[in-house]
Amino acid sequence: MRSTEEGLQAVDQLVRTYSHSCSWFLGPFYSLVRLFHPDYIKPLLLAPASITVKDELFYGFLRPWLGQSLLLSNGEDWSRRRRLLTPAFHFDILKNYVKIFNHSSDIMHSKWRRLVAEGESRQDMFNHISLMTLDSLLRCTFSYNSNCQESSSEYIAAIFELSTLVIERRGRILHHWDYLYWRSPEGQRFKQACSVVHGFTRTVVQERRAQLLHRGEPESHTDTTGGEEKKKKRVADFIDLLLLSKDEDGHGLTDEEIKAEADTFMFGGHDTTASGISWVLYNLSQHQDYQDRCRAEVNDLLQDRKTEDLDWSDLSSLPFTTMCIKESLRLHSPVSAVTRRYTKDMTVPGGRVIPQGSICLVSIYGNHHNPEIWPDPDVYNPMRFDPENSKDRSSHAFIPFSSGPRNCIGQKFAMAELRVVVALTLRRFRLTPGGVEVRRLPQLVLRAEGGLWLTLETLDTPISSPHISPLLLVAKFLN
Asked: Is the domain covering 69-330+403-478 a CATH 3.30.1180.10 domain?
């Protein structure tokens, strides 16, 4: 199992050879079943949460960082957390985050315009977009303005360090044993980075709980009456919502539980979304006709407006852009696989049984590239997601956010940010290939070896958003 371009090509060969699944052995230590057909994946992902367990082989390395969070917990503990966290992702809450997505995009685009004006039009999308999604998440999670798109931060550096170390540990079999890992230089670096991240989150949680006790609850949304916005208290962010959540017995989350969920939201929300946005822009750079059609859709939506900001209601008015996003999520899924264990035997088609306790690797990549489900699977074709072309397709043919009771709780958040950032980027820039061979790099999320380089061309679009930075105006003038 290689985290390289060749490793993904080997998965392609597996899918062509075995069609739906195969057994896989990692030396004398581990065995697992790899599945890459929707008919076989569906009964596994739809299995009740009560018999579904996150295995330690793939998820255990995250536990020192993310604790007993929603991502890693099981059984009744997981069920309780899911019930408590679900309201934090209600669309009424997500509406407030769209403003943040606009603002973080403006900062990134201001920087891009400045770089283009200075003659540096070729840029690594992952580098810029990862910082932009981190900026958004820090604002959505903690109401914290990190300025991370323009300056470095110990907290941001620690998150990047932890992500890298998890991948490195997975590839070194001797480091799978805690006794050896925590005595290695890598293990010591992991502990130090965890200390930085946990210290930041713990401080924010404790300070915010104290504020709530003294000031009362913030508003989770802003009401409008007669077209005029009422002045309200500070809008609730993710930490507020976790602090205020109560279960059916009136019990909330402890500070340690809130810290684990906030750390998980930061881990799961920035890299995956950055990968998704970067690959959408890459695919559209390769297909100028689709890019032009998306741009026309966005421009039609925003014409005659006093601001370039998108709001929640606009997101449903971008059907073709959404089709392009979905096809990119199929072709370049940010997460290439998820793994599960089951506390009972699981039956799949053909009378086959996966024994209790086996690790099941659901290959999202293999499923999305299975030629039995997707003709010409390596071709980027957004029309696959035209409603007319999708109606007879298996419900589990497209699973970028997994599926079933343990699907990604933040998928609406991610899709909203994808739409906003892609739409505003295409309105303001034309993207063309960066002139470098792109080799995929499947790590915690799908990246590109050496970065994903594209060439930016500034487009002449109206600038009237009230929070567009002065740098953007100057760069536009210079350009």
From this structure: no
